[in-house]
Hints:
By secondary structure, the chain is α+β, with helices and mostly antiparallel strands. The chain is built from 15 helices and 16 strands. A hairpin with a 4-residue loop joins strand 13 and strand 14 (about 280-285). Helix 6 crosses helix 7 (about 345-365). The chain starts with a strand and ends with a helix.
Amino acid sequence: MPYKPTIGLEIHAELKTNSKMFCSCKNNPDEKRPNFNICEICTAQPGTLPVANEQAIKKVIKTGLALHCKIATESKFDRKNYFYPDLPKGYQISQYDQPLCFDGFLEIPQNKSQIQNSKTQTNFNDQNAKLKKIRITRIHLEEDTGSLLHPEGADPSTGLRASYSLVNLNRAGVPLMELVTEPDITSGLQARKFAEELQLIFKYLGVSDADMEKGLMRVEVNISISKDKTLGTKVEIKNLNSFRVVQKAIDFEIERQKEVLESGNKVVQETRGWHDKKEITFSQREKEEAHDYRYFPEPDLPPLSFTKEYIEKIKGEIGELPEQKRKRFAKEYALDSTLVEVFITSKDLSEYFEKIISELDDWIEQENDAEFKKIIKVASNYLVSDLVGLLQNKQFSEEECKITPENFAEFIKMIYKNEITSKVAKMVLLEMYNTGVDPSNIVEENNWGQMADDKELEKIVKDIIAKNPKAVTDYNTGNKNSLQFLAGQVMGITRGTANPTNVQEILKRLL
């Protein structure tokens, strides 16, 4: 009988608020100056008192509502007691037995065949796909710790290896949302896809930037394996900072625990870390239990109460979520699942795309349904393949893009109406990307409009045929590639302004 993995996730996300959780210090994850955004409260000076950040509370409730959670009408904060060098108070203000949100869920594709290769996108909008419900136990609110820097190399003042660590408290007190799942996940790939979809939801809601590279979202894994219905010994893997690492760490840990059990030993309940270079988990410490933290109600903060009207108002602020947008894009725009997923994963790009469609609306209404689909396909392909390609792996931002939706819509019209060739279109788009100039002006200034004079084109074709007798002979003896060579010569002379179909037809007739 094979081993069955049982996996639950704990996901932390720093909330996108102006100030920290219990003080007015700026919440700025990009601050480079150490210990700059700090005050008496977040550095735990004696005699200071916390005041809860209402925006942070609202963002957690908003997240819970988006994830089908029940919302507590009564809640409170608790003290979680433990010592760590970057925890100024010696305890963390968190929530224990009365979290803000509980009993929710998030659905992901169930089978491995439905979760495509990690280099491509998950096919969520396949109507035949079976979805797996991952239950969410709770979502609660707490404050983040500071961060430690461990200097490498020799201390310049002594020449000896550094034997100290530096503490930066800019992050201390930042509002931190923690989401805990039920142990419903059974593979590293499922865990990865759950975390990816959750990150998208955070971004769509505007509750967190959830940038894993910056540490704004961190994943922890609880995993055990067994051959029967009884659960195995649980091991926790802490602070996984990329989706790739989440999948790799789980896959490694499943195999490690199998080897331990098959050798006749017992799996030790412990906390493990991930070694990125060696791609292995390693032991850090024995796992703490809840009673080790000596939780008790936070005496300096009053209990929280929420009316149904307050919760309904927050619910009304939830816009379109990824799963809803997938279905709408597939239905309204008849895009394939890969294109849909590109737009879903970049909210800014999808909004830019819809502004382009809005600009094309009046013109599109004059076309029939089949033509509408063709226009949409042209627009989406040039956006996803060509414009995104110019970004060189950078995230699309409409604010930073010099091409307005109006100009992009005009550009698409010119392509669709055969006013410019596909080769010229790429040159026009590059010029638009660099300068933001209107496409019609670019075409006019460079004389890039498609050739309308067939007699002039025929004259150029005859000249190319005369200058390339070998290619002509090769074509006439059955080498069809020679036709492409001659067509390329014509397109070069015309600077891509000749209609490729016309070029082919004239060449075939004259040859």
